[in-house]
Amino acid sequence: MSYQAIKEYLLAILDRYQRSDKEGKTALLTEAARTTGLSRKHLIRLLQSSREALARKKPSGRRPKYPPEVLLPHLGFLWVQMERISARRMKAGFPDWLPFYKHAEFTVPVRLLLERVSASTLDRLLRKLRKSQEARKGLVTTCPARFMKNKIPLNTFDAKIDRPGFAQADTVAHCGNTTAGTYVSTITLTDIDSTWTENRAIYSKKAHEVRKKFTDLDQSLPFELLAINTDSGSEFLNTPVLEFMTRPNGRRITFTRSRPYRKNDNCYVEQKNYTHVRELFGYERIEDLALVDLMNDIYTTCWNPLQNFFLPSFKLKEKIRIGARIVKKFDAPLTPYERLQKSVHLSDERKERLRTAKSALNPFTLKADLEAKLKVFFEELRKSKTREAA
Question: What is the pTM of this model?
Fold first, then answer.
């Protein structure tokens, strides 16, 4: 019971308690203790006071520094706009989001409270907003290409990375409950050092389509692509993709593969497959060719800029084994943009381009555009399924 409810209950039984004999008071105290959860001694002190004193009595303890009734309306909106990220990531993202947040009740005192609130307090406030989400799993569409394995060496080079340009790539199949027929897939490419991530949709996983998207990704990255590590799927282990890694101008991209059926070898991009693809488009089957351009528009104009410029993420700093237990330590949450700005291996010219690109973006505008385009996308997806059923 809340303190206000307890006080109203005690006021209701106060006169009856004070007029009762010893047995009647004992019975009322027993019932009040069960109802309110307060101790009998505490209840006796409260019920022996006058009605005016009991009505004036205020709850003990200091007033909350961060009142939920003031902050929760703003936190609820911001949490949804920031893709329901954790409290620590949300706290790290406030400097980029709060300057763009406009609301009639978002006064200077409220903004100061949000700027000062700690991540742990923020986490407690967000508990009322969180909802459990049922985890779903997709189908595996990776098929190792045996004849190419000897041409592409094994490598788990992520532990040696100290600069941008060393990336991992993978595909996510939008195949629904069956891998039969032709369907859309998404190529995810993640830079290990900065966690910068780009996504592109393709209609099939043919070698030439994958090579074309790799070329697009290479041109859109804010740093020079030095190496790519993929799984052993046939969409990557083929001649066109291998030729893409060796350029006519002499520039060569190191191409390596992870061990078959060892997802931890490609763990950085495997994680992004969920946060950047499944959380956006879910697990539905997408097989309409007309939807590919819309998906790529969502990726390039809304989703990837939102993730890379405005949503902080954790990065594993070290792992320490203590007996049978492994303790993981993480760096402070930063956006991929911030990690690139701190990198000594990125030129000042590229950093200035990134600053110019970010200055033209507003996270709330990106989020609004994203929701509008997703609404159109799922309406078109529903129409395509209706045509197929007919």
Answer: 0.77
